[in-house]
Amino acid sequence: MTAPTDRDTTQRTQISPGPDAPAPHSACVVVIHGEGLGKRADISTDPLVVGRSHEADLYIPHPSVSRQHCAVWHEHGRYRIRDLGSTNRTRVNERVIDVSDLADGDHVTVGESILKFISHASVEARYHEEVHQLASHDSLTDFSNRRHFLELLEKEIARAEHQRRALSLAILDVDHFKRINDRHGHPGGDVVLRQIAALVRSQLRADELVGRIGGEEFAIVYPDADPAAVRIRCEALRETVARSSVSVGDSAMQMTVSIGIAHLGPACPDRSSLMRAADAALYRAKETGRNRICVAGDGD
Ligand SMILES: Nc1nc2c(ncn2[C@@H]2O[C@H](COP(=O)(O)OP(=O)(O)OP(=O)(O)O)[C@@H](O)[C@H]2O)c(=O)[nH]1
């Protein structure tokens, strides 16, 4: 065996211009303390409303926060903040304000939460974006995780009620998924789940929200679509999965999904009743043979 030479052991430092420049980014506010920790929202010329109302752009569900607490916006090259008549007032760096300019790094106190203002193209903004993405999304499928999905659903319900629009919820569960794990192990099961998630994604429109709400369970919100149209969309999704083949290594297989649908309305006026009804419909779809759709209210 020959002794190692300098060439073998020396690591050479690569000449580098430094990290990639952060993409130009609008400014944002990030919750850095209290309820809503990690949430962020971008700021544009349209006022961004921070508050406890489901319709607030940055929703902070805490009793110390007013329904519409403050608004932040971009105007003639400056970032501005205005208190919206909140009970506990808005503070910028501990100073109570009615209207104020914002500078990079300013702390905004809203009830018991603290927001940080981060100006555009900041490396820190990218860091917070990544942290938020990690906290709110499922790493296997990149869908919203259960907690984030439920929060989005709550906001969509508030919007649908306010605008008197339809909203439906579908819960989809992969049939006999345990067999895949038993045959191919948990990593093989993950490979299949990722492929089914891709099929689900391929069937979604831009305004439809999806979340992974359980191990092999996904949920989709269909805003502003009538019940008949939602049924057709779900049938197309069910068929797409049933006709596609998924694979683990060399082994290809056909999978199916069962789907339960519930519509926002007098029988399901809020998030929990909607989730319960869609779940019960899914249970019926499983009980009556799988690879099918059941709708809450039909045949209960
Ligand atoms: N690979 C993998 N498996 C998971 C994950 N989460 C849950 N599972 C598995 O999914 C399986 C779900 O099984 P069951 O709830 O019994 O249902 P099923 O076999 O899909 O049958 P039906 O739903 O009744 O059609 C269990 O074996 C879980 O261990 C995950 O993230 N990855």
TrEMBL record:
Segments forming domain FHA: 48-97
Q: Which cofactors go with this protein?
A: Mg(2+)
List, alphabetically, the GO terms of the cellular component aspect. plasma membrane
> Which EC class is this protein assigned?
transferase
Q: Where is the GGDEF domain?
A: 165-298
Q: What is its EC number?
A: 2.7.7.65
Xref: InterPro entries: Diguanylate_Cyclase (IPR050469), FHA_dom (IPR000253), GGDEF_dom (IPR000160), Nucleotide_cyclase (IPR029787), Rev_trsase/Diguanyl_cyclase (IPR043128), SMAD_FHA_dom_sf (IPR008984)
List the GO molecular function terms: diguanylate cyclase activity
**Listed GO biological process terms:** cell adhesion involved in single-species biofilm formation; negative regulation of bacterial-type flagellum-dependent cell motility
What organism is recorded for this protein?
Chiayiivirga flava
What Pfam families would the database entry show? FHA, GGDEF
What name does the UniProt record give this protein?
diguanylate cyclase
Q: Where is this region: Disordered?
A: 1-24
